[in-house]
Amino acid sequence: MKILNKINVLLFFSVLLFSCSEEKLSPDSIFVDKKAERNELDNYIQQKYTKDYNIAILYKFVEKESDLNYNLSPASYESSVRMTKLLYYLGIEPYDKITGSKDFIKKYFPKLLNYIGSPAYRNNGTFVLGTAEGGVKITLYLLNELNEETGKDVAFLNEYYFHTMHHEFGHILHQTKGYPASFEQITGASYVSDSWSDIYEIDSDAAAAGFVSPYASKEPNEDFVETYSYYITLSPAQWNQRISSGGAEGKALIEAKLDIVRTYFQNVWNINLDELRDEILARQADLPNFDQTSLK
Protein backbone atom coordinates (compact mmCIF):
# COMPACT_ATOMS: atom_id res chain seq x y z
CA MET A 1 0.00 0.00 0.00
CA LYS A 2 2.85 2.39 0.85
CA ILE A 3 4.45 1.66 -2.53
CA LEU A 4 1.23 2.51 -4.38
CA ASN A 5 0.94 5.78 -2.49
CA LYS A 6 4.48 6.77 -3.48
CA ILE A 7 3.76 5.94 -7.13
CA ASN A 8 0.60 8.08 -7.05
CA VAL A 9 2.51 11.02 -5.56
CA LEU A 10 5.22 10.76 -8.21
CA LEU A 11 2.63 10.62 -10.99
CA PHE A 12 0.89 13.70 -9.57
CA PHE A 13 4.08 15.78 -9.54
CA SER A 14 5.00 14.58 -13.03
CA VAL A 15 1.64 15.78 -14.34
CA LEU A 16 2.02 19.06 -12.44
CA LEU A 17 5.50 19.71 -13.86
CA PHE A 18 4.36 18.81 -17.38
CA SER A 19 1.38 21.16 -17.19
CA CYS A 20 3.59 23.96 -15.89
CA SER A 21 6.05 23.50 -18.72
CA GLU A 22 3.25 24.17 -21.20
CA GLU A 23 2.66 27.66 -19.79
CA LYS A 24 4.62 30.61 -21.17
CA LEU A 25 6.62 32.61 -18.64
CA SER A 26 5.99 36.33 -18.59
CA PRO A 27 8.99 38.42 -19.72
CA ASP A 28 8.05 41.14 -17.21
CA SER A 29 9.84 41.14 -13.86
CA ILE A 30 7.75 41.16 -10.70
CA PHE A 31 10.32 43.56 -9.20
CA VAL A 32 9.39 46.95 -10.54
CA ASP A 33 11.22 50.13 -9.54
CA LYS A 34 8.54 52.59 -8.55
CA LYS A 35 9.27 56.25 -9.12
CA ALA A 36 8.73 58.23 -5.94
CA GLU A 37 6.34 61.10 -6.38
CA ARG A 38 8.03 64.42 -5.66
CA ASN A 39 6.00 66.90 -3.67
CA GLU A 40 6.44 70.68 -3.35
CA LEU A 41 8.91 70.36 -0.48
CA ASP A 42 11.04 67.89 -2.42
CA ASN A 43 11.17 70.33 -5.33
CA TYR A 44 12.00 73.24 -3.04
CA ILE A 45 14.86 71.31 -1.42
CA GLN A 46 16.18 70.32 -4.84
CA GLN A 47 16.16 73.92 -6.10
CA LYS A 48 17.29 75.80 -2.99
CA TYR A 49 19.64 73.33 -1.32
CA THR A 50 20.77 70.50 -3.59
CA LYS A 51 21.25 72.43 -6.81
CA ASP A 52 23.18 75.35 -5.30
CA TYR A 53 24.91 73.78 -2.29
CA ASN A 54 24.80 70.00 -2.86
CA ILE A 55 22.85 69.66 0.41
CA ALA A 56 20.22 66.96 0.97
CA ILE A 57 17.48 67.12 3.60
CA LEU A 58 15.86 64.08 5.19
CA TYR A 59 12.50 65.14 6.56
CA LYS A 60 10.87 61.71 6.27
CA PHE A 61 12.08 59.58 9.17
CA VAL A 62 14.99 57.35 8.09
CA GLU A 63 15.86 54.87 10.82
CA LYS A 64 19.46 54.22 9.76
CA GLU A 65 20.18 57.96 9.83
CA SER A 66 18.71 58.32 13.34
CA ASP A 67 20.30 57.68 16.73
CA LEU A 68 18.85 54.39 17.96
CA ASN A 69 19.92 55.18 21.52
CA TYR A 70 16.88 57.45 21.80
CA ASN A 71 13.15 57.00 21.42
CA LEU A 72 12.42 59.33 18.51
CA SER A 73 9.47 60.34 16.36
CA PRO A 74 9.28 61.76 12.81
CA ALA A 75 8.95 65.44 11.98
CA SER A 76 5.60 66.55 10.60
CA TYR A 77 5.34 67.85 7.04
CA GLU A 78 4.33 71.34 8.17
CA SER A 79 7.21 71.67 10.61
CA SER A 80 9.60 70.37 7.96
CA VAL A 81 8.43 73.03 5.50
CA ARG A 82 8.83 75.77 8.10
CA MET A 83 12.28 74.60 9.15
CA THR A 84 13.50 74.25 5.58
CA LYS A 85 12.46 77.81 4.72
CA LEU A 86 13.67 79.29 8.02
CA LEU A 87 16.99 77.50 7.81
CA TYR A 88 17.58 78.98 4.38
CA TYR A 89 16.54 82.46 5.51
CA LEU A 90 18.28 82.60 8.90
CA GLY A 91 21.02 79.99 8.55
CA ILE A 92 22.25 79.85 4.95
CA GLU A 93 21.69 83.23 3.30
CA PRO A 94 23.39 85.33 6.02
CA TYR A 95 26.71 83.55 5.29
CA ASP A 96 26.19 84.05 1.55
CA LYS A 97 25.59 87.75 2.11
CA ILE A 98 28.67 88.26 4.31
CA THR A 99 31.07 86.14 2.28
CA GLY A 100 29.80 87.47 -1.04
CA SER A 101 28.99 84.12 -2.63
CA LYS A 102 27.52 80.66 -2.07
CA ASP A 103 30.95 79.04 -2.10
CA PHE A 104 31.54 79.09 1.68
CA ILE A 105 28.34 77.22 2.51
CA LYS A 106 28.75 74.93 -0.48
CA LYS A 107 32.24 73.93 0.64
CA TYR A 108 31.89 73.69 4.41
CA PHE A 109 28.25 73.26 5.38
CA PRO A 110 27.29 69.62 5.99
CA LYS A 111 25.81 67.81 3.01
CA LEU A 112 23.01 66.11 4.92
CA LEU A 113 20.39 67.65 7.22
CA ASN A 114 18.25 65.23 9.19
CA TYR A 115 14.98 66.35 10.81
CA ILE A 116 13.60 64.63 13.92
CA GLY A 117 10.24 65.58 15.39
CA SER A 118 10.96 64.84 19.05
CA PRO A 119 13.81 65.71 21.42
CA ALA A 120 16.47 63.11 22.28
CA TYR A 121 16.46 62.76 26.05
CA ARG A 122 19.66 61.97 27.95
CA ASN A 123 19.83 59.98 31.21
CA ASN A 124 20.56 63.13 33.23
CA GLY A 125 17.25 64.73 32.31
CA THR A 126 18.62 67.05 29.63
CA PHE A 127 17.97 66.52 25.95
CA VAL A 128 19.88 66.84 22.70
CA LEU A 129 18.80 69.59 20.31
CA GLY A 130 21.29 68.84 17.56
CA THR A 131 24.33 66.83 16.60
CA ALA A 132 27.07 67.16 13.99
CA GLU A 133 28.76 64.07 12.59
CA GLY A 134 32.18 64.32 10.99
CA GLY A 135 31.38 67.52 9.16
CA VAL A 136 28.93 65.61 6.96
CA LYS A 137 25.57 65.64 8.74
CA ILE A 138 23.62 67.83 11.15
CA THR A 139 20.59 66.40 12.92
CA LEU A 140 18.01 68.82 14.32
CA TYR A 141 15.51 67.62 16.92
CA LEU A 142 12.22 68.90 18.36
CA LEU A 143 10.83 70.02 15.00
CA ASN A 144 7.25 69.24 15.96
CA GLU A 145 7.25 72.23 18.31
CA LEU A 146 7.65 74.51 15.30
CA ASN A 147 4.33 76.02 14.27
CA GLU A 148 2.74 79.32 13.23
CA GLU A 149 3.19 80.85 16.69
CA THR A 150 6.66 79.57 17.60
CA GLY A 151 7.88 80.19 14.05
CA LYS A 152 7.77 83.94 14.73
CA ASP A 153 9.18 83.76 18.25
CA VAL A 154 12.85 84.70 17.85
CA ALA A 155 13.80 83.57 21.36
CA PHE A 156 12.19 80.18 20.76
CA LEU A 157 13.79 79.75 17.35
CA ASN A 158 17.24 80.59 18.68
CA GLU A 159 16.97 78.44 21.79
CA TYR A 160 15.77 75.29 20.05
CA TYR A 161 17.06 75.52 16.49
CA PHE A 162 19.36 78.28 15.32
CA HIS A 163 21.67 78.48 18.29
CA THR A 164 21.99 74.72 17.78
CA MET A 165 22.55 75.00 14.03
CA HIS A 166 25.30 77.62 14.39
CA HIS A 167 26.76 75.65 17.31
CA GLU A 168 27.07 72.50 15.21
CA PHE A 169 28.35 74.40 12.18
CA GLY A 170 30.94 75.99 14.45
CA HIS A 171 32.17 72.51 15.34
CA ILE A 172 32.64 71.69 11.68
CA LEU A 173 34.61 74.87 11.09
CA HIS A 174 37.00 74.48 14.04
CA GLN A 175 37.50 70.81 13.20
CA THR A 176 38.49 71.89 9.69
CA LYS A 177 40.84 74.66 10.86
CA GLY A 178 41.70 74.76 14.54
CA TYR A 179 41.43 77.76 16.85
CA PRO A 180 44.32 79.07 19.02
CA ALA A 181 45.29 77.09 22.12
CA SER A 182 45.12 80.33 24.10
CA PHE A 183 41.32 80.02 24.13
CA GLU A 184 41.40 76.96 26.38
CA GLN A 185 43.88 78.54 28.76
CA ILE A 186 41.49 81.31 29.82
CA THR A 187 39.35 78.95 31.95
CA GLY A 188 41.42 75.80 31.54
CA ALA A 189 41.01 74.49 35.09
CA SER A 190 37.27 75.09 35.23
CA TYR A 191 35.90 72.64 32.66
CA VAL A 192 33.70 70.04 34.33
CA SER A 193 32.98 67.45 31.60
CA ASP A 194 29.55 65.79 31.85
CA SER A 195 28.85 67.33 35.26
CA TRP A 196 27.98 70.68 33.69
CA SER A 197 24.22 70.28 34.23
CA ASP A 198 24.72 69.47 37.93
CA ILE A 199 27.28 72.16 38.72
CA TYR A 200 25.71 75.04 36.78
CA GLU A 201 21.94 74.93 37.06
CA ILE A 202 21.36 78.45 35.72
CA ASP A 203 23.09 80.71 33.21
CA SER A 204 24.30 83.25 35.76
CA ASP A 205 26.21 80.57 37.71
CA ALA A 206 28.06 79.60 34.54
CA ALA A 207 28.67 83.24 33.63
CA ALA A 208 30.26 83.86 37.03
CA ALA A 209 32.82 81.17 36.19
CA GLY A 210 33.51 82.62 32.74
CA PHE A 211 31.18 80.54 30.57
CA VAL A 212 28.51 81.90 28.27
CA SER A 213 26.24 78.95 29.16
CA PRO A 214 26.31 75.93 31.49
CA TYR A 215 27.01 73.63 28.53
CA ALA A 216 30.05 75.72 27.60
CA SER A 217 31.72 74.48 30.77
CA LYS A 218 31.81 70.91 29.47
CA GLU A 219 35.08 71.27 27.52
CA PRO A 220 36.92 73.81 25.33
CA ASN A 221 35.39 72.85 21.99
CA GLU A 222 31.87 73.23 23.35
CA ASP A 223 32.90 76.49 25.00
CA PHE A 224 34.23 77.84 21.71
CA VAL A 225 31.11 77.09 19.65
CA GLU A 226 28.75 78.18 22.43
CA THR A 227 30.49 81.56 22.57
CA TYR A 228 30.28 81.84 18.77
CA SER A 229 26.66 80.76 18.38
CA TYR A 230 25.28 82.88 21.23
CA TYR A 231 27.13 85.95 20.02
CA ILE A 232 25.76 85.90 16.47
CA THR A 233 22.16 85.09 17.43
CA LEU A 234 21.70 87.55 20.33
CA SER A 235 21.28 91.30 20.14
CA PRO A 236 24.04 93.40 21.76
CA ALA A 237 21.76 94.07 24.73
CA GLN A 238 20.90 90.38 25.14
CA TRP A 239 24.54 89.36 24.86
CA ASN A 240 25.63 91.92 27.44
CA GLN A 241 22.87 90.85 29.82
CA ARG A 242 23.91 87.20 29.51
CA ILE A 243 27.62 87.69 30.13
CA SER A 244 27.07 90.30 32.87
CA SER A 245 24.69 88.13 34.90
CA GLY A 246 27.54 86.48 36.80
CA GLY A 247 29.48 89.61 37.69
CA ALA A 248 32.43 91.58 36.38
CA GLU A 249 35.05 88.83 36.74
CA GLY A 250 33.10 86.26 34.77
CA LYS A 251 32.20 88.83 32.13
CA ALA A 252 35.88 89.69 31.59
CA LEU A 253 36.70 86.01 31.03
CA ILE A 254 33.92 85.59 28.45
CA GLU A 255 34.96 88.77 26.65
CA ALA A 256 38.54 87.50 26.46
CA LYS A 257 37.24 84.31 24.82
CA LEU A 258 35.05 86.31 22.44
CA ASP A 259 38.08 88.29 21.28
CA ILE A 260 39.78 85.04 20.26
CA VAL A 261 36.63 83.74 18.54
CA ARG A 262 36.15 87.01 16.66
CA THR A 263 39.81 87.10 15.56
CA TYR A 264 39.71 83.44 14.52
CA PHE A 265 36.72 83.96 12.22
CA GLN A 266 38.19 87.11 10.73
CA ASN A 267 41.68 85.71 10.11
CA VAL A 268 40.83 82.11 9.22
CA TRP A 269 37.46 82.44 7.44
CA ASN A 270 37.43 86.13 6.50
CA ILE A 271 34.10 86.52 8.31
CA ASN A 272 33.40 89.59 10.44
CA LEU A 273 31.24 88.30 13.29
CA ASP A 274 29.67 91.69 13.93
CA GLU A 275 28.57 91.97 10.32
CA LEU A 276 27.26 88.41 10.39
CA ARG A 277 25.33 89.13 13.58
CA ASP A 278 23.87 92.34 12.12
CA GLU A 279 22.63 90.41 9.09
CA ILE A 280 21.05 87.69 11.23
CA LEU A 281 19.42 90.23 13.57
CA ALA A 282 17.94 92.15 10.62
CA ARG A 283 16.36 88.96 9.32
CA GLN A 284 15.07 88.08 12.79
CA ALA A 285 13.39 91.48 13.00
CA ASP A 286 11.66 90.88 9.66
CA LEU A 287 10.27 87.47 10.61
CA PRO A 288 6.65 88.73 10.87
CA ASN A 289 6.84 89.46 7.13
CA PHE A 290 8.53 86.20 6.16
CA ASP A 291 6.33 83.51 4.60
CA GLN A 292 7.26 80.20 6.21
CA THR A 293 4.81 77.92 4.42
CA SER A 294 4.69 78.89 0.75
CA LEU A 295 6.93 76.78 -1.47
CA LYS A 296 6.23 78.60 -4.72
Provide a short characterization of the protein structure.
By secondary structure, this protein is an alpha/beta fold.
Helix content: 40-55%
Strand percentage:
5-15%
What structural category characterises the helix and strand content?
alpha/beta
End-to-end C-alpha gap: 79 Å
Mean pLDDT: 86
Radius of gyration: 27 Å
Instruction: Give the tally of β-strands.
Output: 6
The largest pleated sheet is described as: 4 strands, mixed
For the largest beta sheet, what order do the strands appear in spatially? 1-2-6-5
Number of helices: 12
**Regions with pLDDT < 50 over 5+ consecutive residues?**
1-21
Describe the global form. Answer: globular
Helix and strand pattern: HHEHHEEEEEHHHHHHHH
What topology emerges from the helices and strands here?
Blueprint: H1 2-22, H2 40-53, E1 56-58, H3 77-99, H4 103-108, E2 112-115, E3 120-121, E4 127-128, E5 130-133, E6 137-140, H5 154-176, H6 182-186, H7 196-199, H8 203-208, H9 220-233, H10 236-244, H11 248-269, H12 273-285
Helix pairs in contact: 2-3, 3-12, 5-9, 9-11
Description:
The chain is globular. It is built from 12 helices and 6 strands. The chain has a 4-stranded mixed sheet with strand order 1-2-6-5. The relative contact order is 0.10. It is α/β, with parallel strands linked by helices. Pfam families: Peptidase_Mx1. This is Zinc-binding metallopeptidase. InterPro entries: LP_HExxH_w_TonB.
